[in-house]
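Lay summary. Proteins are chains of building blocks that fold into shapes, and those shapes determine what they do. In this project we predict the shape from the chain. Here is one chain we studied, written as its sequence of building blocks.
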Amino acid sequence: MTIQDRILDYLKAHPEGVDDDSLTIALGLAQRQQANQRCRRMQQFGWVVRRRVNGKLHNFACSEPPVTLTVLAPGQMPEERSWFWEGNVQARVAAYITHLGYSVIFAADTASKQQGKDIIANSPIGKTLWISVKGYPAGTVKTNPRTQARHWFSHALFDLVLWHSENSSVELALAFPNQITYHNLARRVRWLLEYLGASIYWVDESGEVSWQQPSKAE
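And here is the predicted shape, written in a compact code that computers can read:
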């Protein structure tokens, strides 16, 4: 049995969550880094959720892991290895909603820039959720990342408008890395998000996910 298997089995037996230090001691690992790195890796694949409890990160096993998500190997473009790369944002959101009881039935291959809905999931009560996911651009010599981020935000917002026209009964959401540019844009279009009943999942550098849910306009 691998260390990863042992960690996952232990977390399943402790649904209250276990921090890296306690996990290291419980499994007799040589270094805390072994627990930390493997839990972070499993989080990328949606097997583990990491969130703070009383100020300390705890690991939680997902009851039903989502579909396999693409995680890039070392040696690829630095932007794609960043925490704010779209694939990493997608993986963390998929893991988060799985922990909330959603069943992820589709996740787009972000590495190949697959078109369409980035995440499709079913809620515990059977309602469908469609999520448009964006990362944050690294920028180029000629392009300011904030300018490019505004374009990406508009594309994601237009996704929701089209999807609402396609099926107004589906839950809609956006997912972004926790960057000030995206927060400022979200505030400016809050009226539209409220009309669509769309929520936003914000992903921090630590991997934590927060959920912002505007109330739907009457």
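What the prediction tells us: Residues 145-166 form the longest helix (22 residues).
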